[in-house]
Design goal:
Largest sheet: 11 strands, mixed
Shape: globular
CATH architecture of the largest domain: 3-Layer(aba) Sandwich
Structural class: alpha/beta
Order of helices and strands: EEHEHEHEEHEHEHEHEEHHHH
Distance between the termini: 16 Å
CATH superfamily of the largest domain: Periplasmic binding protein-like II
CATH topology of the largest domain: D-Maltodextrin-Binding Protein, domain 2
Number of strands: 11
Radius of gyration: 20 Å
């Protein structure tokens, strides 16, 4: 498979006894300005540092986000990556953005990374106070290929506003700059769980404000899209200009592996990353890791499977993964 590469030592000559060719597993990350880029990069470094078996290692690979990650794990271009529950379901059953791909059962889940929320924000001095005020405005829906783009589009389509806005499809960092320069009126993005670096950093220079859904809007979206659950984002002290909570929705982010990744590599990867001491180190620099867990309840609902090697690790931690969703290939 394309994600497994052979590292030849000393120009193809094995320089010392017992030095075997190593497999490199590509770990898909995320785009610049988003939370996954620094988090997965840090996680990859920690996993490699703690690997006792040097027959394989992990290499961080940037990506466009959730849609890109799930597709590339499904096809074997990535060995492992993170992705949203929405893309998990669509790829598994070959629907939505994955309809042309067809159903894929070539990946498994190994962990629940965390809950995310969806952020919709404007500059604090903007006249926009509600979603209805966004009619006729320029709204950035994030780059296509990202899970954030799917969720942003779902918001505006679900509320009947998609045809009433001027959409843009800039990445995280570019959309932060564009909001600050007033090239766009509205910034839409995933929150990790309640902030995103590009927006938080912008707020230091130019305060920003989150737009809250009404109760009716929140109910409309969570009823229409069963992957979403109601969530209210509390005031974030790091987001300058945010003074009130904002109604939104949440959804889980999962960690995927492709079927060609060895059971040993899957087990050790999860064991190292999920170790409480290691998680504490990771969370100090990349908060995304802080909530890594074994909550697979959404997978039970949608009948998506967990990798047996990961289930073995979680069992050692005293957490039993429901047998009906633990399946090999």
């Amino acid at each position: 498979m394309s994600f497994i590469r052979t590292i030849l030592l000393a120009g193809g000559v094995v320089a010392m006894a017992g030095a075997a060719d190593a497999q490199t597993y590509r770990f898909g990350g995320g785009p610049s300005g988003g939370g996954w880029h620094p988090a997965v990069s840090a996680g990859t470094q920690l996993i490699n540092k703690n690997l006792k078996d040097k027959k394989y290692k992990f290499q961080y690979s940037p990506s466009n986000g959730s849609v890109d990650n799930v597709r590339r794990v499904s096809t074997g271009d990535f060995a492992t990556a993170w992705g949203h529950i929405v893309q998990s379901y669509q790829s598994w059953y070959g629907v939505g953005l994955f309809k042309k791909d067809g159903p894929s059962k070539d990946f498994r889940i190994v962990a629940n990374v965390r809950q995310q929320t969806q952020i919709v924000a404007v500059l604090a001095d903007s006249p926009i106070k509600s979603f209805s005020d966004m009619k006729g405005k320029v709204v950035n829906l994030l780059a296509k290929g990202s899970g954030s783009n799917v969720n942003c589009a779902n918001i505006f389509k679900g509320l009947g506003l998609y045809d009433k806005i001027t959409p843009r499809f800039l990445g995280f960092a570019a959309s932060g700059r564009a909001l600050g320069d007033r090239q766009i009126d509205v910034f839409c993005s995933a929150g990790a769980p309640f902030t995103i670096p590009a927006l938080t950093q912008l707020s230091v220079r130019k305060p920003v404000r989150y737009i809250s859904m009404t109760e009716a809007e929140q109910a409309t979206l969570t009823n229409a899209f069963k992957f979403y659950a109601p969530m209210t984002i509390p005031v974030q002290k790091d987001v300058k200009g945010m003074t009130e909570p904002a109604r939104s929705f949440s959804y889980p982010v999962f960690w995927y592996v492709h079927k060609q990744m060895s059971d040993d590599a899957v087990y050790n990867m999860v064991k190292i990353a999920a170790d409480p001491g290691n998680l504490k180190k990771l969370a100090s620099t990349a908060g995304y890791w802080k909530t890594l867990n074994a909550d697979f309840s959404a997978l039970q609902v949608h009948k998506i499977w967990v990798h047996p090697a990961a289930a073995r690790y979680w069992k050692e931690r005293g957490i039993t993964v429901p047998a009906e969703i633990v399946k090999g290939f």
